[in-house]
Amino acid sequence: MITSATVRNRSAILSQPARCDEWLYPVTQDEVVHEHGTVTLKCTVQENDNSSLQWSNPAQQTLYFDGKKALRDSRIQLVQYSPHELTISISNMTLNDEGIYTCSIFTMPVLTATARVQVL
Protein backbone atom coordinates (compact mmCIF):
# COMPACT_ATOMS: atom_id res chain seq x y z
CA MET A 1 0.00 0.00 0.00
CA ILE A 2 1.43 3.39 -1.03
CA THR A 3 0.79 6.16 1.45
CA SER A 4 1.61 9.86 1.24
CA ALA A 5 4.51 9.24 3.67
CA THR A 6 5.93 6.61 1.30
CA VAL A 7 5.77 9.03 -1.62
CA ARG A 8 7.46 11.80 0.41
CA ASN A 9 10.26 9.47 1.53
CA ARG A 10 10.84 8.16 -1.99
CA SER A 11 10.94 11.71 -3.38
CA ALA A 12 13.50 12.72 -0.79
CA ILE A 13 15.71 9.76 -1.68
CA LEU A 14 15.48 10.42 -5.43
CA SER A 15 16.24 14.13 -5.07
CA GLN A 16 19.47 13.60 -3.12
CA PRO A 17 22.74 13.36 -5.09
CA ALA A 18 24.31 9.94 -5.29
CA ARG A 19 26.75 9.57 -2.39
CA CYS A 20 29.20 7.64 -4.56
CA ASP A 21 29.79 10.82 -6.62
CA GLU A 22 30.84 12.98 -3.68
CA TRP A 23 34.52 12.21 -4.30
CA LEU A 24 34.25 14.06 -7.63
CA TYR A 25 33.39 17.44 -6.10
CA PRO A 26 36.10 20.01 -5.34
CA VAL A 27 36.39 21.25 -1.76
CA THR A 28 37.59 24.67 -0.64
CA GLN A 29 36.84 27.13 2.16
CA ASP A 30 36.16 30.82 2.79
CA GLU A 31 39.09 33.00 3.81
CA VAL A 32 39.58 36.31 5.63
CA VAL A 33 42.71 38.37 4.98
CA HIS A 34 43.91 41.80 6.08
CA GLU A 35 44.49 44.42 3.41
CA HIS A 36 48.01 44.09 1.94
CA GLY A 37 48.20 40.56 3.38
CA THR A 38 48.43 37.23 1.57
CA VAL A 39 45.57 34.77 1.13
CA THR A 40 46.03 31.09 0.34
CA LEU A 41 43.28 29.36 -1.65
CA LYS A 42 43.31 25.57 -1.48
CA CYS A 43 41.13 23.33 -3.64
CA THR A 44 41.15 19.56 -3.25
CA VAL A 45 39.40 16.57 -4.81
CA GLN A 46 39.45 13.06 -3.36
CA GLU A 47 39.69 11.35 -6.76
CA ASN A 48 40.62 12.65 -10.17
CA ASP A 49 40.32 10.92 -13.55
CA ASN A 50 42.93 13.24 -15.15
CA SER A 51 40.48 16.15 -15.18
CA SER A 52 41.96 19.65 -14.94
CA LEU A 53 41.65 21.88 -11.89
CA GLN A 54 41.24 25.64 -12.17
CA TRP A 55 41.04 28.70 -9.90
CA SER A 56 39.14 31.79 -11.13
CA ASN A 57 38.77 35.22 -9.55
CA PRO A 58 35.50 37.08 -8.89
CA ALA A 59 35.60 38.49 -12.45
CA GLN A 60 35.74 34.85 -13.67
CA GLN A 61 39.27 35.31 -15.04
CA THR A 62 41.32 32.13 -14.87
CA LEU A 63 44.16 32.49 -12.37
CA TYR A 64 45.65 29.00 -12.64
CA PHE A 65 44.74 26.06 -14.85
CA ASP A 66 46.34 22.90 -13.47
CA GLY A 67 49.90 24.00 -12.70
CA LYS A 68 49.95 26.76 -15.34
CA LYS A 69 49.56 30.44 -14.52
CA ALA A 70 46.92 32.03 -16.73
CA LEU A 71 46.78 35.64 -15.52
CA ARG A 72 49.78 37.95 -15.59
CA ASP A 73 49.74 39.18 -12.03
CA SER A 74 52.97 38.83 -10.06
CA ARG A 75 50.99 38.70 -6.79
CA ILE A 76 49.55 35.27 -7.71
CA GLN A 77 51.78 32.26 -7.04
CA LEU A 78 51.41 28.50 -7.24
CA VAL A 79 51.77 26.89 -3.81
CA GLN A 80 50.89 23.25 -4.59
CA TYR A 81 49.70 21.36 -7.63
CA SER A 82 48.85 17.69 -8.01
CA PRO A 83 45.94 15.83 -9.63
CA HIS A 84 44.19 16.12 -6.24
CA GLU A 85 45.08 19.67 -5.20
CA LEU A 86 45.49 23.16 -6.63
CA THR A 87 46.63 25.69 -4.05
CA ILE A 88 47.54 29.27 -4.92
CA SER A 89 48.42 32.40 -2.95
CA ILE A 90 47.63 36.01 -3.70
CA SER A 91 49.77 38.62 -1.98
CA ASN A 92 49.18 42.32 -1.35
CA MET A 93 45.41 41.85 -1.24
CA THR A 94 43.25 44.96 -1.65
CA LEU A 95 39.54 45.62 -1.24
CA ASN A 96 39.25 45.21 -5.04
CA ASP A 97 40.32 41.55 -4.66
CA GLU A 98 37.45 40.73 -2.32
CA GLY A 99 34.73 38.41 -3.60
CA ILE A 100 33.87 34.88 -4.65
CA TYR A 101 36.73 32.77 -6.04
CA THR A 102 35.83 29.58 -7.90
CA CYS A 103 37.61 26.26 -8.06
CA SER A 104 36.51 24.05 -10.95
CA ILE A 105 37.26 20.50 -11.99
CA PHE A 106 36.64 19.88 -15.66
CA THR A 107 34.69 16.65 -15.47
CA MET A 108 31.50 16.17 -17.45
CA PRO A 109 29.68 18.21 -16.22
CA VAL A 110 32.14 20.74 -14.78
CA LEU A 111 31.92 20.76 -10.97
CA THR A 112 32.71 23.84 -8.89
CA ALA A 113 33.28 24.99 -5.33
CA THR A 114 33.46 28.60 -4.19
CA ALA A 115 35.50 30.43 -1.59
CA ARG A 116 34.38 33.82 -0.34
CA VAL A 117 37.43 35.99 0.31
CA GLN A 118 36.89 38.92 2.67
CA VAL A 119 39.54 41.67 2.87
CA LEU A 120 39.60 43.60 6.17
TrEMBL record:
Domain Ig-like, first and last residues per copy: 26-118
Descriptive protein name: Ig-like domain-containing protein
Entry annotated with the keyword Transport: no
Any one Pfam family match given in the protein's UniProt record, by short name: V-set
Database matches in SUPFAM superfamilies: Immunoglobulin
Alphabetical UniProt keywords: Disulfide bond, Immunoglobulin domain, Repeat, Signal
Organism of derivation: Chiloscyllium punctatum
GO molecular function annotations of the record: signaling receptor binding
GO terms under biological process: cell recognition; detection of tumor cell; positive regulation of natural killer cell mediated cytotoxicity directed against tumor cell target
GO CC field: plasma membrane
Superkingdom of this protein's organism: Eukaryota
Keyword Disulfide bond among record annotations: yes
